[in-house]
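2.7 Reproducibility. Because tokenized structures are sensitive to small changes in the input, we list the exact sequence used for Dynein regulation protein LC7, including any N-terminal residues retained from the expression construct. No trimming or masking was applied before prediction.
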Amino acid sequence: MIQQRGNFDWMLKELYDGVPGIEMIVVLSADGLRIARYAGDPDAADRVAAACAGLQSLAGAVAQEIPDSDGRMKLVIIEIDGGYFYLMAAGANAYLAVLSDIVCEPGLMSNRMRDLVARIGPHLTSPARHNGQTV
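Resulting structure tokens (single pass, no recycling of outputs):
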């Protein structure tokens, strides 16, 4: 069920077990590479990670237009027919993405994601890359 680089299994399983309705959890780098996943199809997790790179960039651009904002994206929630999508900044150059069904309560999910990131955010990091190489 888990595919990852590093040992994220217990971290992601705790979130998965603690919130009803989660379909997939993905940890990704800022440039859209999957670092870890829990549940769901590996190919789908790769597609979600790639899409998240664009979404976090878009959210950051919008955040820069808000007065007194630091311009960084913290949390994006998208309601979709049949479920929700959550994307949260989770460490240096890393993000936590969750897909859930409609049973999942958005307030509970965002609180649990925030708690997870606060406790283990330093472990959810990805080194910066330039031209595909780690910097």
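Residues 4 and 36 are 4 Å apart (CA to CA).
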